[in-house]
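Researcher: Let's do a round of design. I'm pasting the structure tokens now; please hold your answer until I've finished.
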């Protein structure tokens, strides 16, 4: 397709080449930043990019003062966002309410479907799926939870005054990744973010780690809800009974969560643990499970020997599945005859470990400073983490108030993820969103929220997002955004640069990108603007200029 004097593929090729060049090195100006530049840098790293007039506002109040305020998000009013979120009813439902509304109807529909299948053997899988959809009205389908959560994340990221809070929610939701497609996580993902992660990201890491370990979402995602001790290691009287069949409950030890707890959540891959530590930690955490929802008349897990169930969707320690033998993790002995408390003690041990401090410091510095953060900064941040007992506010403060944070090598040194890119583009043009169609755009660019399959979460490394297909999708998104073709997302036309005169590209770049674009980018944009149709349609040319600037290599950097 060729429009306005230059093939779109050629512009996309320029974007790819420019972003690749940007990833090879940061802004090379060997100078310290003035207050306005410091403000823009802070807004690009500790927020999802500046809105119109944000740079001037932050510079006027002092970037250091703005940062300190962002470190205490509960003191920042956010009434407009709260009002916008009020229409998303699933955000306020408890786990039990979510189960009753979205999971119990599925169980009931499946029972009815089985009964119908027994009465009439015809149909097949396709007919079964269609019948199941008929039995489940749209308002009772779990996909609604995911859709409203995605909307909420985008609404907050675009419009919240608590920008650093939203940046850190994104960080921790990736650190403790859960894929909403895994079984009951289609239900539990909602309370995982709202009740487990969000309330604890400014407190102690130990509390956040323990909460995620007991979260039904994590217990399902990494299979610990189904992990059980061998029969001979279970407490009496359960030890003399043979293990339940796979259809009735857990049948053996599952190491998935223990492995990721050590490798990803705490010590890191080079944290000094062994495979034996993984196995022993998995034994320590046996019995950490959940209260399962079930349709009326169905027996609970484990048959008549099951413990009384708690509220559906809540954490439940199943003593009958716990390993009561002696275990040793990282040289520390647990048991014999310990209970849930030994799992809590193991998690606290990991949270306070020096390797955990180093691993978290490196990850946080990578997110907020550079893909390859200065080792001296990582060392200082890790030391601060340990000195404050894992206080996450103080840990983040140690990064964002450091000299390295504002050093020239870190300025515009990172490439935005699709989520960061889409949100920053909407903010740059003074836009607002209901998040619905915008969420689909983010997914098409490669980052569907809450749907990352591997436990590593989405990458913070710039190189992960640099490929021609993804960057062409970004350009298409930018052009759709500025021309008003994303339903539910509104652009403030006053924020768009006017496409008039020789200086329009430069002025537009300063307004939307915050810096001049490269000579090659400016030349390419000028050729797209030179079409005769733009001479008579200034509005269309203005939208095109804004879209090309937002799709440029320069805007990909933060």
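Researcher: That's everything. Go ahead.
Model: Designed sequence:
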């Amino acid at each position: 397709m060729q429009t306005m004097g230059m093939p779109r593929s050629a512009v996309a090729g320029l974007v790819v080449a420019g972003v690749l060049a940007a990833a090879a090195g940061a802004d090379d100006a060997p100078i310290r930043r003035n207050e306005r530049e410091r403000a823009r840098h802070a807004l690009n790293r500790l927020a999802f990019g500046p809105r119109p007039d944000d740079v001037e506002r932050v510079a006027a109040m002092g970037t250091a003062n703005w940062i300190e305020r962002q470190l205490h998000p509960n003191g920042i009013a956010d009434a407009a966002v709260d009002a916008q979120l009020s229409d998303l009813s699933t955000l306020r439902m408890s786990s039990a309410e979510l189960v009753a509304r979205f999971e119990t109807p599925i169980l009931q529909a499946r029972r009815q479907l089985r009964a119908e299948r027994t009465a009439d053997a015809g149909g097949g899988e396709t007919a079964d799926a269609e019948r199941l959809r008929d039995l489940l009205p749209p308002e009772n389908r779990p996909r609604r939870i995911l859709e409203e959560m995605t909307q909420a994340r985008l609404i907050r990221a675009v419009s919240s005054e608590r920008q650093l809070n939203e940046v850190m929610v994104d960080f921790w939701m990736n650190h403790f990744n859960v894929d909403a497609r895994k079984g009951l996580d289609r239900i539990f993902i909602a309370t995982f973010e709202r009740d487990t992660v969000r309330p604890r990201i400014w407190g102690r890491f130990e509390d956040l780690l323990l909460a995620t370990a007991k979260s039904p979402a994590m217990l399902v995602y990494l299979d610990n809800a189904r992990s059980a001790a061998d029969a001979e290691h279970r407490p009496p009287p359960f030890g003399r009974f043979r293990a339940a069949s796979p259809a009735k409950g857990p049948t053996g030890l599952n190491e998935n969560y223990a492995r990721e707890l050590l490798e990803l959540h705490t010590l890191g891959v080079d944290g000094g643990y062994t495979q034996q530590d993984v196995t022993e930690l998995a034994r320590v955490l046996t019995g950490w499970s959940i209260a399962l929802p079930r349709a009326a008349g169905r027996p609970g897990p484990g048959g008549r020997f099951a413990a009384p169930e708690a509220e559906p969707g809540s954490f439940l320690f199943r003593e009958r599945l716990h390993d009561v033998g002696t275990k040793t993790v990282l040289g520390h002995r647990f048991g014999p005859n310990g209970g849930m408390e030994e799992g809590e003690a193991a998690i606290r041990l990991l949270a306070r470990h020096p390797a955990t401090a180093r691993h978290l410091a490196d990850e946080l510095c990578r997110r907020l400073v550079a893909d390859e953060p200065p080792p001296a900064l990582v060392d200082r941040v890790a030391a601060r983490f340990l000195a404050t007992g894992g206080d996450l506010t103080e840990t983040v403060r140690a990064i964002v108030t450091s000299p390295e944070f504002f050093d020239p090598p870190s300025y515009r040194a990172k490439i935005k993820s699709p989520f960061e890119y889409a949100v920053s583009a909407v903010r740059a043009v003074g836009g607002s969103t209901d998040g619905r169609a915008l969420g689909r755009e983010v997914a098409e660019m490669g980052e569907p929220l809450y749907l990352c399959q591997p436990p590593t979460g989405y990458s913070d490394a710039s190189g992960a997002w640099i490929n021609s297909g993804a960057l062409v999708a970004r350009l298409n998104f930018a052009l759709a955004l500025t021309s008003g073709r994303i339903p539910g997302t509104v652009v403030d036309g006053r924020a768009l640069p006017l496409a008039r005169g020789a200086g329009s590209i430069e002025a537009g770049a300063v307004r939307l990108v915050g810096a001049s674009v490269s000579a090659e980018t400016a030349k390419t944009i000028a050729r797209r603007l030179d079409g005769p149709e733009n001479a008579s349609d200034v509005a269309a040319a203005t939208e095109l200029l804004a879209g090309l600037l937002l799709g440029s290599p320069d805007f990909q950097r933060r």
